[in-house]
Structures are given as C-alpha cells and as structure tokens.
Amino acid sequence: MKKKQLGLLLAVPGLMLAISAQAHSDKEHMGKAENPDCAAMSTMDHSKMDMKDPVVMAMMQQCMSTMQHGSTEAESKAHGEQMTNTGKAGDHMQAPSQ
Amino acid sequence: MIAIKKGSCFKRLLVMAGAAVIGGVAFLYSGLYSMGADDPHYDVTTWALETLRESSIVRASQDIEVPSDLSSAERLLKGGADYNDMCAGCHLKPGKSQSDFTLGLYPSPPNLAVISRLDENETSIDQRNFWIIKHGIKASGMPAWAPGHDDTRIWNMVSFLKRLPDLTPAQYQILTARGKSDVVHH
Ligand SMILES: [Cu+2]
C-alpha cells in the first residue's frame, strides 16, 4: 500500500506534466469582440452607485460613449483624464471592431 | 559472527528500501495505475498533492512585490477583458455554474466568480494569484500564462479577480466586453 502511494505520488505529477502543456495563441482570444451591453447600465440603480468605486468607474468608462450621445470625442477626453488616462481600446492586441 | 549480527538490522532496512524502490518502479511499468481524469485520487494522495502545491506556492510567491494601484479602473478593464477571453471557460463567470472544463478536468478548476478568500491576508492572496497565473500549476489543467503575457497583464487579471466575486452578470458583461460601445451607433 505504502509503495503504491509512493508510486502514485511520482507517477501522477510526472506523467501529467506532459499533458498540462496547453497551447495558447494570442489570436485565439482576440477575434470575438463583444460590445458592452450598456443598456443594462441604465436599469441599475444609479443612486446606489458609488462613483469612486473602480468597478463603477470602469463601467462608466466602457459606456460613456453610449451615455453621452454626440460629442464622444470631447467627453472621452474629459472622462479619461478624470479617471484613468488610457482607455483599453487601441491599446494592446485588440483591433477596433468595425 | 558478532559483527555480522550487528550489521544485520541495517542490512535488512536496506533490503526493504531497495524492495520498495523496485516495487515502485515495477508499479510504474505494470499499467495498473488508472490514468483517467474521471477516476479520482485516494484522499491521502489528494492531501499530499494539495499540501505540496500550497507549500510550494507560498514559498515561491512570498517575496513578490504587489503593485500599489491594483484597484484601478484601468486594470479592471484590461484584466476583465483578458479574463473573459482566456479564463472564463474554465473558471466560469457570474451566472454560470459549470462548463465542460469544470465537469471534465481533474482537478476541477475552481469557480473564481464565487470563491473569495476573505479570511486570508490580502497581499498573500494577490501574490499567490499572480504566481499561479504566471507559472501555472503542474499536473493540472492550469496553464502558465507568462509566455505571451507580460507581468502587467497578469497583474491586471489579479486586479480583476479581486472584484470578480462581487460582480453581477450585467456588470461582468460591461467590464469584460472588448468592443467599443459606440460601434452600436454607426
Ligand atoms: Cu492571452
């Protein structure tokens, strides 16, 4: 029994190591760009939102262009400086989906 | 005569140890071990493997320096998008309780949208998560993500993991979507 356990301890990590190599190509997760469902945000209770909460700030950042119709450019700028300086689009990897 | 008798106890031990090694090697070649992911370990094996894993990760991650801006909105957005693309299939997301991976992998990937380790020291959780994401976990389905992903991207995911258990499905969707919301209007 004891040596069987020992065998398991050696065999399991040793043999499964070979299997654990999972290939990951960047393209694998770059294709399917989903758009944020910002309509859902209007149904959230805004009075309960803490505007200093990074989660809320991040959602605003994702949705500001839907919420402020029109001058998206200026709005993005203003919001961008207020919160964080770089939006995530146009950064790494994701080609803007158009 | 006397000298042989004195050494015999030690000799016997040696013979037993040798037999154990030979027995172990013979077991490896025998084919008796069940390799299937659907055939769980004995409890003692599970305990040994988990203890090995946790002790190793604590030791390896204890000196990692955690960035001070982990809670930033920018990190959440970047980490969220990456999490959704690379991790949610195995580690699930709000509103999802199982996938082919959680059902079939052994060990099963934990649901990172529900576990929170509030009882533990926050810094060591962040260090642990960073280390696990970067290096992966040997002999499990958890890959090392260092190839192709720099430390900043990994920290972004660590940042996202801190908030993931609080998110509703709608919040999760907005945070992790890569597309731009204004595309809808064009
Ligand atoms: Cu990736």
What does this structure look like?
The complex is a heterodimer of chains A (98) and B (186). Chain A has 98 residues and is mostly helical. In chain A, 48% of the residues lie in helices and 0% in strands. Chain A contains 4 helices and no strands. Chain A has helices spanning 2-19, 39-42, 54-67, 72-82. The longest helix of chain A is centred in the first third of the chain and has 18 residues, at 2-19. Chain A is globular, with a radius of gyration of 23 Å. Chain B is mainly alpha-helical. Chain B has helices spanning 2-30, 43-61, 73-86, 88-91, 100-104, 122-135, 151-163, 169-176. In chain B, helix 3 crosses helix 7 and helix 6 crosses helix 7 (151-163). Mean pLDDT of chain B is 92; it is low at 182-186. Bound molecules: copper (II) ion. Copper (II) ion sits between chains A (24, 26, 29) and B (86, 148-149).
What's the architecture of the largest domain in chain B in CATH terms?
Orthogonal Bundle
Give the SSE order of chain B as H and E letters: HHHHHHHH
Q: Separation of termini of chain B?
A: 99 Å
- Low-pLDDT segments, ≥5 res of chain B: 182-186
The share of residues in extended strands of chain A comes to: under 5%
Report the major sheet of chain A: none
Ranges of chain A where pLDDT stays below 50 over 5 or more residues in a row are 12-23, 69-98
Largest sheet of chain B: none
| Number of structurally distinct domains of chain B | 2
Q: What coarse outline of chain A follows from CA principal-axis ratios?
A: globular
CATH superfamily of the largest domain in chain B, called what? Cytochrome c-like domain
| Rg calc of chain B | 23 Å
What would you call the shape of chain B? elongated
CATH class placement of the largest domain in chain B? Mainly Alpha
Bound molecules: copper (II) ion
How is the CATH topology of the largest domain in chain B named? Cytochrome Bc1 Complex, Chain D, domain 2
- Helical fraction of chain B: 55-70%
Q: Mean pLDDT of chain B, nearest integer?
A: 92
SSE order of chain A, one letter for each helix or strand: HHHH
Terminus-to-terminus distance of chain A: 63 Å
| SS strand fraction of chain B | under 5%
